[in-house]
Amino acid sequence: MARVNENYSNLKQSYLFKDIATKVAAYKKANPDKKVISLGIGDVTLPLPEKVVEALKEASDEMGKADTFRGYAPDQGYDFLREKISEHYRKRNVNVDISEIFVSDGAKSDVGNITEIFSRDNMVMIPDPVYPVYMDTNVMDGRKIIFADANKENNFLAMPDGRHADMIYLCSPNNPCGSVYSKEQLRKWVDYALDNKAVILFDAAYEAFITNDTLPRSIFEIEGAEKCAIEFCSFSKLAGFTGTRCAYTVIKKDLMLERFSLHDMWVRRQSTKLNGVSYVIQRAAEAVFTDEGMEQCKKNIKYYLDNAKLISALLKEKGIYHTGGTNSPYIWMNCPSNMKSWEFFDLLLNKTSVVGTPGSGFGMNGEGYFRLTSFGSRDNTIEAVERIRRVL
Ligand code: PLP
Predict the structure, then answer these.
(1) What is the set of domains in the chain, with CATH numbers?
(2) Is residue 134 classed as helix, strand or coil in its secondary structure?
(3) I want to staple 96 with a disulfide (CB 3.0 to 4.6 A). Which of 2, 89, 152, 364 is the partner?
(4) pTM confidence score
């Protein structure tokens, strides 16, 4: 008899976004005249930059002509794109060879798939609260998980606490907390990983939101990380590719576990299970790195960051503890009057018709916190801030 992977029965059902949708639908039905504004959006809302759209059209035309048509793309990505990614790192004095770059359809897929090259016996450390994919992908594989506390004391930046782990997930800028590790803090994690012969899985999906030049945008800005870290990056938030799909993962050739090269294992894994990313999409991603393309991306990111500033300014004015709001599209706030996350959700919805995301949905340490995002329109953000002001 065929058997299933029973680890799936250990997955906790995630009701977070379903429960939010149900409550919002009921509220709208009962209050048809009220305009509901969502500051819970985790997806980008601005359209693709013009330069990217031009590249998409040009590449599509090429695919329709016999002499420029392309079939399967190289497993690791076209050199034209990997060269641009390598140059992107070089601008921050990080040396990444194109052979160390793996282009894919998304950071989520790579973060999920990477577990395949690790033993199921590894102990996994995941910050709490954090992006739920790290936990679920390891539960699916049956690995043991311990949580590193992120809380008010460490400004929602979990740090090593003496316990051993073999695989460590870090996300900076963080989803949902908006917090960003400093170089000194990442130095501590890299030292910890080297001491423990552990591997850091560093999710830099939001690196483009970092405007403070002293903050690291890549774990490879820390010496020694090439021997203990894998980095995941994405065009989703940098260039609005959430629906277009393109990302990249960097595994340096120096990363060895005993006699095994994780780089070579990932080459083997990708060439066996992935037939590359569409030529058209890789040309679109390449356009992000043109001067004009990058300027257009930065303009969009500034738009979101300006929204974030408006939300953050209100919380500062009201003396409410929060993280994020700068160098990140997320604002992670303490619920007022010791309210629990869902209590504050209900209050906001019922009194202001504004929707956010209860922090308790991201982990135990998220209880009493609330995530607001800057991915809405400027007008809606301004209106939502005014409405929230009335209840704080
Ligand atoms: N990593 C983090 C922390 C995210 O929040 C998200 C998406 O919201 C992703 C990865 C997914 O990135 P991609 O769209 O490239 O799959």
Answers:
(1) 14-43+292-389 (3.90.1150.10), 50-289 (3.40.640.10)
(2) helix
(3) 89
(4) 0.97
